[in-house]
Amino acid sequence: MGIRFTVLSSGSTGNATVIAYEDIKLMIDAGFSARRIDELLAEREVTGSELNGILVTHEHSDHIKGLGAVARKYNLPVYANELTWAAMEKHIGAIPDENRRMFGTGETRDFGSLRVESFPVSHDAAEPVGYCFYDGKEKLSVVTDLGYASDRVMQAISGSDVLVLEANHDVEMLRMGRYPWNLKRRILGDMGHLSNEAAGEVMSLLMNGRVKRTYLAHLSREHNMLDLAKMSVREAMEDRGCFFKDSEFKLCETYYDRPTPWDKVGDL
Question: Are 202 and 149 in contact (CB under 8 A)?
Fold first, then answer.
């Protein structure tokens, strides 16, 4: 059957992704109202009652806005590390003790036959993480909200068949934009967000592996555009000697206002 996924929506206004394998469905983050999450799920013919749990990357509002409401509505377990739990508790409301699940950074958990690994990323949150998903044959990695790709990140996502990777901003658009300088400095810093060029550099280091597709995620509506992100990532890869045909590798889009089509990790 293989690992399937859909990025329900991704951007500075909210983020949520669904991973499906056999009879398991997991959602990463819940950065929209419960009503909006239900709408996005319905667009991909999923209901909240089909979910087996929610994995949390970090406590920023664009990742947990609807977390408490969705978890309570569908009686879902919520998985996060200790510092993220502490940082988000006052924002998400009461979660029953039996649904408060600790998932430590660097730990691996099995959900049926699907193995999930948590790994640390560099971002200005309590203890932010990314996630890798394995079924013994295929690997999907989801990593957004990071200022740079550390050796630990690169180790975690190497060998991925498909990657969901942040390409948040075009550096010049951000520098010329309306944000105050302290916010620009935060985004550009090592605990901020990955630029298009930085995403291209990450991909150039992975292209000698088995990666088939990369979904460019968490694009800024203020300081990026889909076509620009894809062009800039490709150019950054080519500058580092990585040339590819679309039949061999594809850069794919995510959207701030609608889900991506269901994708199967093992497909070409």
Answer: yes
Give the separation between CA 86 and CA 242, rounded to whole angstroms. Answer: 42
Domain annotation covers residue 267: no
Helix axes 226-239, 196-206, angle to 10 degrees: 50
Q: What domain count does the chain have?
A: 1
Distance, CA of 152 to CA of 157 (rounded, Å): 9
Would 34 be classed as within a structural domain? yes
157, part of any domain: yes
Rounded to whole angstroms, the Cα distance separating 24 from 51 reads 7
Stated pTM of the model: 0.97
Mean pLDDT by 10 residues, the chain (268 residues): 95 96 97 98 98 98 98 98 98 97 98 98 98 96 98 98 98 96 96 98 92 97 96 97 90 97 91
Range of the domain at 18: 4-257
What CATH number has the domain bearing residue 9?
A: 3.60.15.10
Contact criterion met (CB below 8 Å) for 78 and 54: yes
Mutual orientation of helices 67-74 and 34-43 as an angle, nearest 10°?
70
The distance of Cα 175 from the centroid of its chain, to the nearest Å, equals: 25
